[in-house]
Amino acid sequence: MATKDNVRISPAQGKLGVLIPGIGAVSTTFIAGVEAVKRGIAAPVGSLTQLATVRLGKRTEGRTPLIKDLVPLASLNDLEFAGWDIYEDTAYEAARKAAVLEPALIEQVREPLEKIHPMEAVFDREYVRRIHGPNVKEARTKMEKAEMLMDDVRQFQKRTGVARTVMIWCGSTEVFHKPSQVHETIKKFERGLQKNDPEIAPSQIYAYAALKLGIPYANGAPNLSVDAPALVELARENEVPVCGKDFKTGQTFIKTLLAPGLKARMLGMSGWFSTNILGNRDGEVLDDPGSFKSKETTKLSVLDQILQPKLYPQLYGDLFHSVRINYYPPRGDAKEGWDNIDIFGWLGYPMQIKINFLCRDSILAAPLVLDLVLFLDLAHRAGMRGIQEWLSFYFKAPMHAPEVYPEHDIFIQLMKLKNTLRWMRGEDLITHLGLEYYD
Ligand SMILES: NC(=O)c1ccc[n+]([C@@H]2O[C@H](COP(=O)([O-])OP(=O)(O)OC[C@H]3O[C@@H](n4cnc5c(N)ncnc54)[C@H](O)[C@@H]3O)[C@@H](O)[C@H]2O)c1
């Protein structure tokens, strides 16, 4: 350890277990991708942990190491995957069905994918209504289900001999629920598990199981999951880092690129209409109004937070923001999004921007899963616990301390992420002031 480090980071020795509820499009694209990268078949495009550098010190110093050389991250060769799903398909079959990756590529990594047999899921049709499958745990109470999940984890750890484990929710979007009384404290939550409180979602049972075992947890979907006071309390108590929610990909990613730019120039905005078509299983689940409401809520929150209409009522006070998702099977995972943005400039003169993004949802999400897994493991080894706001960069609705608003501007998020890495290593934080070059 370098002496100037602000935190003691234990080395990334041994294997890192990656546990994933939801063996679907995103998770299989992630796992197949890691296996392809390991074999030198393809490049980890989109992943900061694999490709990005950090500037250290002054611009004149020329120090820009790769992130993975600045902080000790687990190596791709040390990742060991397992997961749960309501379907019995192996990760190989699930990847074939998701049809994100070309069959020829999937065949090249068939062997490791075929070894991943989803464990029985904790599932509740009240929370995900459009799908049902046979691979589901039966138990009397939600607490018993949590204990069964913990047994799964222990068996996985024993079988594989992993040194550390992280969990990342890549399961379907659950129907919209606000935090309720049962989510207030660990005590109430545990009583709720025993009494089968209907407000406890399956994803929260996974989160609880992970945190009880001291395993970091990330939530890639918009439903609450670990974003509840009781679970954050448990994370802090057990010294476990957590983060969420809803991977920032596709249309919202573009939104958080553009909106800060327009606001930076004090250009006004009267409307932003976003619509898209999506034909994968995620799209099918989101066709249910309850699940869509979860997604809509995270997607809508972004603009309000970036534009700050209370501070700038004349520019953003009357903004009409609408988001639609249409389930359209022929497109599969190849989503197409359209945005119409009505802006206004000098003297209120109107202008329009149109965006037509033909994106690939899971291709955009997979590198985020990789980075989150590696960074959460790093945070854990660095003794960081509770909400990891520095990982906001990856989320549409970043978890945050109750007294602050979430930061949605992707460039501020990136600065926060890189400054956190600099801080870990005891390097100067970069303020971009730079007056010293002109003294
Ligand atoms: N692809 C993206 O760009 C993106 C972006 C943001 C968020 N997300 C979210 O990530 C999640 C995964 O997306 P996807 O495209 O892989 O969806 P998917 O439908 O292909 O995969 C989700 C899998 O989760 C399984 N599942 C549902 N409930 C479960 C439970 N309780 N336990 C275990 N498994 C369960 C389903 O059977 C399915 O196989 C979704 O919630 C989606 O909204 C995706």
Overall radius of gyration: 22 Å
How many E-type strands? 11
Distance between the termini: 36 Å
Read across the widest sheet, the strand sequence of neighbours is 3-2-1-4-5-6-11
Sequence stretches where pLDDT stays below 50 over 5 or more residues: none
What string gives the helices and strands in order? Answer: EHHHEHHHEHEHHEHEHEHHHEEEHEH
Fraction of residues in helices?
25-40%
Mean pLDDT: 95
Question: Structural class given helices, strands, pairing?
Answer: alpha/beta
Largest sheet: 7 strands, parallel
Sheet-strand content, in percent, reads 15-25%
What's a concise summary of this model?
The chain is an alpha/beta fold. The chain is built from 16 helices and 11 strands.
Topology, pairings included?
Layout: E1 16-21, H1 25-38, H2 48-51, H3 67-70, E2 79-85, H4 91-98, H5 103-108, H6 110-114, E3 119-120, H7 142-160, E4 164-169, H8 186-194, H9 202-212, E5 217-219, H10 229-237, E6 241-244, H11 250-264, E7 268-278, H12 281-286, H13 289-307, H14 313-316, E8 320-327, E9 336-344, E10 350-358, H15 361-381, E11 386-387, H16 410-424
Parallel strand pairs: 1-2, 1-4, 2-3, 4-5, 5-6, 6-11, 7-8
Antiparallel strand pairs: 7-9, 9-10
Helix pairs in contact: 1-4, 1-15, 7-8, 7-9, 8-10, 11-13
